[in-house]
Amino acid sequence: MILTALLAVGLAFVHIFAGRLRFLDTIPRSRWLSMAGGVSVAYVFVHLLPELSERQRAFEQNHNGIFVYLENHVYLFALTGLAVFYGLERAANISRRSSRKVGKKDRTSLRIFWLHILSFASYNALIGYLLVHRQEPGATNVLLFAFAMALHFIVNDHGLRENHKRDYDKLGRWILAIAIVFGFLIGQATEIQDMAIGGLFAFVAGGVILNVLKEELPEERESRFWAFALGAAGYALVLLIAD
Questions:
Q1: Coil, helix or strand for 91?
Q2: 20 to 30 Å CA-CA from 85: which of 101, 125, 155, 199?
């Protein structure tokens, strides 16, 4: 419990202090952001999705009926996570474009700001919850998860700050930081079935993939493929050794 509590607080501090990493605000895109995105995606594909697959097979051997149907479609949760965050990004882009057309500052409307912040707060709370309820027990697994999520939060923080400007610095980052600790506390007080844990991890997997790629793919950001590939390959190697 002490380790997971410290990690939850540490992840909260990522959102609070990530804005001070001004060297990340560059075009071409900072190699460190691209590398952080590679690490996050590597964790999903090398560690998280194989865990979900193994859990699915084990569940099928011991259950039947509607529960097996849901578990067979655990990847629908990943698709849902990807689709949800794609929708949020599209809403932010449309809002910023509308603001520019009417001569306002290049940032989202207040409505879209709150939609983004509340959605990402729920996402962060979910990650805080999953710090407690891991698919695989052990200090090594929780440290690998927390490290990947810390770098993922840096990538998310950069994107949210770009969309929401001062509103994010003044309020948004604090809400997201508190949400992580809140999720951790809920995790300490409650426990849900293994099947539900698998679904939650799948949703996070979809969210990680979309949130990383939406930052890396736009041409105007001039992302650094070699840094992304290095981060992905390096962390994949770490995960394979740890297994």
A1: helix
A2: 101
On whether the CB atoms of residues 2 and 197 are closer than 8 A, the answer is no
Tokens encoding 141: 């697994």
Nearest Cα to Cα of residue 126 among 206, 63, 64 = 206
Q: Which helix (H) or strand (E) holds 59?
A: helix 49-62
H/E segment holding residue 109: none
Amino acid occupying residue 23: F
DSSP structural state of residue 106:
S
Integer Cα distance of 197 and 47 in angstroms: 15
Find all residues with CB under 8 Å of 229, minimum gap 6, and list them: 38
Element (H, E) at 161: helix 139-164
pLDDT of residue 191: 79
Nearest-angstrom CA–CA distance, 11 and 204: 15
User: Which tokens go with 86?
Assistant: 């794609």
pLDDT tens readout for residues 81-120 = 999 999 998 998 898 888 888 777 777 888 999 999 999 9
**Which DSSP letter does residue 65 get?**
T
Q: Is 154 left (phi over 0), alpha (psi -120 to 50) or beta?
A: alpha
Query: What is the C-alpha to C-alpha distance for residues 127 and 203, in angstroms, rounded to an integer?
Result: 10
